[in-house]
Protein: Amino acid permease
Amino acid sequence: MAFKDLFRKKTVQDILKQVEKNELEGHESLGKHLTTRDLTAFGIAAIVGAGIFSTIGKASFDGGPAVIFLFLFTAIACSFAAFAYAEFASMVPVSGSAYTYSYVAFGELIAWIIGWALIMEYSVGNITVAISWSDYFTGLLSSGGIHLPQWVQMDYLTASNGFRDATALMEGGKSFENLSAGLQDAYTAWTTSPVIGSFHVVADLPALLIIVFITALIYRGMKESRNASNLMVVVKLCIVLLVIAVGIFYVDTDNWSPFAPNGVSGVLKGVSAVFFAYIGFDAISTTAEECKNPQRDLPRGMMWAIIICTLLYIAITLVLTGMVSYKSLDVGDPLAFVFDELHLKWMSGIVAVSAVVAMASVLLVFQLGQPRIWMSMSRDGLLPKKFSNVHPKFKTPSFATVVVGFVVAIPALFMNLTMVTDLCSIGTLFAFVLVCAGVLALQNRTDIPRGKFKTPYINSKYIFPLLIVIALVVSFKYNEKATMGFITNETKINDSEAIITSLNKEETQKVYDYLLSIEGKISVSEKLDAEDLLSKYQEDETKYASVVAGLPISDTVKYESGFDLFKHKIPMWIFLFVVVGLAFWAYKENLSLIPLLGLVCCLYMMAELSVWNWIYFTIWLLIGLIIYFTYSRKNSKLNLERE
Structure:
């Protein structure tokens, strides 16, 4: 097989002819039910979920009221990507999202890679949302007096890791009562779970049940899914507006001062969490084939969803940080928490119920998108033909929908929420990057039929290099210490919890004795443990560095340096080199500014994720390449047509 055949492309004309043929024959065609209003509702259903009901609390804690600027930045970045999605959706109005667009722009191998990445994005995203839904649902049951055993409402990895960390902290002198609620729950789940041999039976059963229910609904039909989604969107929008309307009367503007207590670094600390609050609008593009007028409705639906959700996020953030101090918002259920603090129990209960509805609607949209990706890949011969089967009555990709249910349900029983959140983010951002790059690659081609929507053209030839210069000046002038630390790979001091949980019992005792010796007077009633004693110094950076330097333990535990530190910076170095390359490309080809900024913003957010996520993502892609070269390459319809 010639190397060039790996990049054989589908033409827009052939794709549209095949769709028209399918519709005329009634073969493998999907029902057309969706309008702009439905698409906007799907977008809101996907976006308004974890962002408002969970991650907004941690982001506000890190950045203070100024976190509204992070929501604004993320919305702008997503809008840049949405322009690119909308242009492709208008040009190629079929199911498949970024996968189909890449097949046209880059060729088969890149299309396979992005399709494989999308499989991970939607699968892992669904797992994430199912776990979050389970947390809210079990919390709601607990508030109603129904307490499930911890080992049936927590995943295996969280319980295992939590048990290990809790044990290490208790060996350092911390009592069980002084552990965080999360560690207490994990320790309880692990120690009370049934044991088969040496295996602890810990599994998140509510997550399994909601996936089964949503999968059955999606299998039943698009019209039913649309109606359920629209109903859930109405419910949660009413709740969000009620929270704003009630909360605004309890806002104390003194809580908005300082507006940015931790500076720019505090605001940017929540990039990954806030971005996760926006992903989902791209799932709209997977329904292109089921739209009544995709070339008009898809762009409108995406843009309206992002605009509405951004306004809601900003309003909610200002209300929350005005009702209570940002310092108290580091909780998993910030909306319910603030009303509890103000003794408005009835509002707290309403918020808890709406959170369960919100999470279910997010899961519905994510679960809706993935089978349509698989169906598109199957139609092209890259996956077995069975995945493109359309139910004769329900007009849904039936087999793919059932398989997706299993693919999501089984890992949701055992996987850790933090791990799957970051994996979902990196898969989504990778898709955004390729879609933006696809628009740039096609912008000067005259053989591509254009749809009704086209991204406004602004020449980036001089603007983009100028933006890079401005970014460098700002970095060195206003954030010189962090910038130079990044370049020189300056040794980093680990935080107190990371140090203490890395020690064995004997080392922990040595650290505790040392801290007592320098502390001087300690009240017996305080009952401080090693982690408490060490964390007291973290507010003063200089003092903390001095105390850590004197700890009687190995420097490898106290500090991160050399390659161990540099490896975490590899994603950012990749980003910087790519940006330089893009500057040359922009100057040479007069690239369009909006998709270029979308590419750069999304790549930057990828660089903010840990190197381990890049490694896991690379392993996933390598598995995909093995499948492509052993099955998909030979069975591709483009390959069979040329034989």
